[in-house]
Amino acid sequence: MGLFSPDGAWWWDGARWVATTGIQLVLPETEFERSGGLKAARKLMTIREWIFVGMYVAGITVIGLPLILVLVIAYWIVQFRAYKAYRQWTLELLSLATAQLLDPDEPMLACETTIYPRTGFWPSMRRDNAIAVARAHVLMFWFDHFDSPAIRVVFAARPPDVDLMLINGWIRISLVVAHQGRRWFLPGIRGIPKGQQVIDAWRNVLVASASRQ
C-alpha cells in the first residue's frame, strides 16, 4: 500500500518517497501461473514458432505449396489462443501491481495491455505498454519482455489529466493513452483486448468526480 503525490511524480512506499518511474515492484505468483496457464501459453508460443518454420519450408518447395493455407490458418488459431492466455496472465499481474501501489479502498476498475505481433523476421509478441484505471488514478505500466512479470510504472496521473480513445481497424484495435503531450498506443488483435471497458471505467470515474464537485 502506498500514496502518490498530487502530481503523480512521487510514491510513498511506507518509509520514504520514491520517484514514480523508479518504483521497484515485486509481484507474487499469479493464480494463472499456479494453475499451469503460463506453462501452457509458452507451449503455444513454441508451437507457433514451429508452424512458422513449416510455412517457410513449404513456401520454398513445390510439394509444400498446397499446405501453406492450412499452415497459415493453424498459425493464426494458435497465435490467437496464445495471445489470449498471455493477456489473462498480464491482467492478473496488473491487478497485483495496482493493489501494491494504491490504498485498499481504491481497487482497480479496469485494465488492458498491448498484445500484438512484433515486427521482424522471427515471430514474436509485443507485450509492453499496459494501463490500469482506478477511482482516483490512471496508472501506465511497462513490461520489459513479453514473457516476463517484471513491470515498472511509466506514470501515475489523475483521471482528468489523461485522455483515452480507441482506434478500430479490421484486424488491429489500439487503445490510445494521452498524458502531458505524449501518446502511448496499446495495439491488440481484434477479439482479444477489451479497450472499451477501460474507456468506460475512465469515463465513469470522470462523471462521478464531476458530480461530487
CATH superfamily: Pleckstrin-homology domain (PH domain)/Phosphotyrosine-binding domain (PTB)
Order of helices and strands: EEEHHHEEEEEEEEEH
CATH class: Mainly Beta
Largest sheet: 4 strands, antiparallel
Q: How many H/I helical runs?
A: 4
Uncertain parts: none
Output the radius of gyration: 19 Å
For the record, the count of structural domains works out to 1
Q: Look up the CATH topology.
A: PH-domain like
Q: What is the approximate shape?
A: elongated
Report the helical percentage: 25-40%
Strand tally is: 12
Report strand %. 25-35%
Report what the structure shows.
This protein has 213 residues and is α+β, with helices and mostly antiparallel strands. The protein has one domain: Roll (PH-domain like). The chain is 37% helix and 29% strand. It contains 4 helices and 12 strands. It has helices at 31-34, 37-59, 68-101, 195-212, and strands spanning 3-4, 10-12, 17-19, 108-113, 116-118, 124-126, 129-134, 138-143, 151-157, 163-168, 172-179, 182-189. The strands form 4 sheets. Strands 4-7-8-9 form a 4-stranded antiparallel β-sheet, with helices on both faces. The protein has a 3-stranded antiparallel β-sheet with strand order 1-2-3, with no helix packed on it. The longest helix is centred in the middle third of the chain and has 34 residues, at 68-101. The chain is elongated. The model has no long low-confidence stretch (mean pLDDT 92).
